[in-house]
Amino acid sequence: MTTTISGALAALGHTLPKPSAPAANYVSTATAGNLLFVSGQISLPDLDPAFGGHLGADLDVAQGKRAAEAAGLAVLAQIAAATGDRLDKVRRVVRLGVFVASAPGFTRQPEVANGASDLIAAVFGEAGRHARAAVGVAALPRGAAVEVEAIVELEG
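-> structure tokens emitted (156 positions)
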């Protein structure tokens, strides 16, 4: 059994990306007590065209799920940076907020958000089962299709 976030991802066929730096006047993560707050992480449209645009116009649900998974990988990169890449430092993923750039009338945000939720649950097991909001928005930074934020409870 692996003890690292990167190892758990490798077992799933993923590579842990480098954590992104903040794009403005904020920090990537902040802690309050045992809670780690991860700032919104976007699917990067410059890496794959399927990660940019609007669901229901430019992208279908399957592409949106891939974009959500990519944003989820970026969240995991931030968690790994904050915990020294240690799975045992995460007591529980408490909540994900998933924002989906949506064309008017698109209502399948929960299905898109599953891309991130499924990844987090696969990495952390039962501790990765979380509360979630999946919200449609008009636009996201840099034209991203999906942005994911997280609240994580760390071991004391």
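The domain at 5-14+28-154 is CATH 3.30.1330.40 (60s Ribosomal Protein L30; Chain: A;).
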